[in-house]
Amino acid sequence: MPVGAALPIVHSCEATSCAYNGEHHCHAAAITIGNSGSAACETFLPADARGGTESGDAQVGACHEAGCVHNENLECTAEEIDVDTSGASAVCLTFAAR
Question: Which of 3, 42, 71, 83 could pair with 32 in a Cys bridge, judged by C-beta atoms 3.0 to 4.6 Å apart?
Fold first, then answer.
């Protein structure tokens, strides 16, 4: 992804127990997808309190999941991603193995 290019947006988030989730949208300014082998959202914070930005237009700030076809130099190249829960964590549903 070229420097200055728009970051991918979090299109939807079904991790409703996350402090950054409001009406199925992520309200964090940016999220990080981890390298756990399951493309987990490392920004996921299960809490009753709500936080983040008013807009609900979160972006993918970094992706450490090098095994994903959308990962280029630890940046996400997908136009948008979707996030859902998986057990006790949240995961990127847009992940596609190389």
Answer: 42
